[in-house]
Write a structure and sequence with these properties.
Length: about 220
């Protein structure tokens, strides 16, 4: 038996309260159980020069949005968590343009895709939903400006120290390549910096693992 739309509506409204004021009849077609998608980690959701298929409402998991260079280097632009959405997707829908970055599932995902026509109608007719989308734009643009400032002006060792500290746990299951992608750098440089941190007794390095030994020491580097 196919679940009723209300079974889908409850978790969606819990994460996206901006949809609460939308007339149920308008959402009924979009909130069908068969529209809920489950994807494994590593799935590419969209890529550069692809058309946008809809506005994602993320119910579980995490999406990383990255920009790739012809050399193969990647820069992490931002992550999308449940209750948020992708401003690049929003801009593509509003401008009727193709993607200029790509999105990858960092963990298993559960999401619902609002069709482009419904997204356009909600933007035109529903002030609360429109305010939600524009609020996301404001938040993401502020974060992207901070990223530009970090990449352009901050030393890489400082940025690496801040990235390690931001992980909260002291034992990090992460590769040097993953750290390099988050910093918009290359693995060789990040590995060299990590070895320098290890020589100072700030971290120990293992296979796909970095263990923080001295948080105050890393904080001193991050503050330079």
């Amino acid at each position: 038996m196919t679940p009723e739309p209300s079974a889908v509506l409850a978790p969606v409204l819990a994460l996206y309260p901006a949809l609460a004021e939308v007339p149920p009849a308008l959402l009924a077609g979009a909130l069908q159980a068969e529209r809920v998608v489950h994807l494994p980690a590593g799935t590419e959701l969209f890529a550069e020069r692809q058309p946008c298929r809809g506005f994602p409402l993320l119910l579980a998991g995490s999406i990383k949005v990255v920009k790739s260079a012809p050399s193969g280097r990647e820069l992490l632009l931002y992550r999308v968590e449940p209750g948020g959405s992708c401003i690049i997707t929003s801009s593509c829908l509003l401008g009727q343009a193709d993607y200029n970055a790509h999105g990858i599932a960092e963990s298993p995902l559960t999401l619902l895709l609002l069709p482009p026509a419904l997204f356009s109608r909600l933007m035109a007719e529903q002030p609360t939903f429109r305010a939600f989308v524009f609020h996301l734009f404001a938040e993401r643009i502020a974060l992207l400006m901070q990223l530009v400032e970090e990449v352009a002006f901050a030393r890489l060792d400082r940025r690496l120290a801040k990235l390690l500290l931001a992980k909260h746990d002291d034992v990090l299951g992460v590769t040097h390549q993953q750290l390099a992608e988050e910093l918009g750098s290359v693995r060789e440089i990040v590995s060299r910096l990590l070895k320098g941190f290890a020589a100072q007794g700030l971290v120990t390095l293992g296979r796909e693992q970095v263990t923080i030994l001295d948080r105050p020491g890393l904080q001193a580097i991050a503050a330079v």
